[in-house]
Amino acid sequence: MNDISLDENTVISFDLVVIPPYDFKSIFSFLGARAIPGVESLVGLTYRRGLRINDLNKVFTGWLEIRGNIDKNVLEVRLSRGLYEVIDEVKALIIKVFDTRCNPKDFPEIIQNGLRLPGAFDLFEMAVRTILGQQITVQAARTLAGRLAMNLGQPIVTPWKEVSRVFPSEEMILELENVRDTLGELGVIAARSLTIYEMAQAIRCGRLDFNKYKHPEELIKNLLSIKGIGPWSAEYLLMRGASYRDAFPVTDLGIKHGLVDRLKDDEGQSLTKLQPILSKYKFDKLYERKALEWSEKYKPWRSYITIGVWLEQLDWSRADDIF
After folding, report:
1. Half-sphere exposure (CA, 13 Å, Cβ side) for 141?
2. How many CB atoms lie within 10 A of CB 41?
3. Smallest Cα–Cα separation from 60: which of 160, 156, 145, 163?
4. Coil, strand or helix: which one is 300?
5. For residues 90 and 51, is the Cβ–Cβ distance under 8 A?
6. Residue 41 phi, psi (nearest 5)
7. Full-prediction pTM beyond 0.70?
8. Sequence-ordered list of residues with C-beta below 8 angstroms from that of 254, at least 6 positions apart, any chain
9. CA distance 249 to 233
10. I need a labelling partner for 277 at 20 to 30 A (CA). Which of 57, 200, 230, 285 fits?
């Protein structure tokens, strides 16, 4: 990391070196496809967002910009003066979100080209985004999250018109007089509004601390105790919110689409040939069992396997075929 510098407008800038190989394009495009309107934006290899940091009961807000420099193998970071007092926290978040310290040499051979695990800048924001994304498309979830941000998020001043907010905090959600009506007016169904409210309570009181969990099973158990959080949401939050490298949301439709044609049952029959003759329940249970068996070969890197399946960036010729 280069020394921190300040320009004439007191903008802070520094570089973060990444461990090669590093797939700049995939991680920036992944974040861009999920960028919340008003809070985040992506142009090429330039990611921008509004950011809020809570530190010792004081709230700091500002903006940051991260550019991927492929030639120098660094992330070029700029952030507003308002975040200077919490610059160490900001650096730690960037390292986590862009997964800069993971060494690809440790990956199974199926994971190629420096694939990385995108993390989260804001845990409550990621939790809300996960809840909104249940059983709808990435774009639909992005739209709903943008409505929440534009209507409930705190305005900030940035150099870009497309970034004008920080995402609403858990405290802001808890202060709503009627969360179901308020979020309902923004297009969020009642059940998910109540799940968001309970999630805000759990994070606010410390029942859910993504940064201090001792065992992933403990965090999963606490997540599943929240009404409206099922196995998919819990695994996704473990992967993206806690940056846990071995999550595997087996029920995810994208994972199923990417794996089902490659799996066989205990007798060596292709699952795709069995699908028409099995009930949906029996087929889904068979698929989940065989997918989990297959994934065991890739512990403790299954979060990266998941990202690779979603982005269609696994080298299947190097797969450990156990069937």
Report:
1. 18
2. 20
3. 156
4. coil
5. yes
6. -150, 155
7. yes
8. 309, 310
9. 8
10. 230
Q: Give average pLDDT by consecutive 10-residue segment, the chain, 323 residues.
A: 51 95 96 97 97 89 97 97 94 97 93 94 96 93 96 96 96 96 97 97 88 83 95 95 95 95 94 95 97 96 97 87 51
Report which residue type is found at 320.
D
- Residue 224 token pair: 């599943």
CA distance 42 to 30: 10
Task: Say how far apart CA 146 and CA 40 lie, in whole Å.
Answer: 10
Of 38, 42, 49, nearest in space to 25 by CA:
42
Give the closest residue to 153 by CA, choosing from 51, 46, 41, 35: 51
User: What does the alpha-carbon distance between residue 114 and residue 136 come to, in Å, rounded to a whole number?
Assistant: 29
SS3 label, residue 308:
helix
* Angle formed at CA 188 by CA 187 and CA 191, multiple of 5 degrees: 145
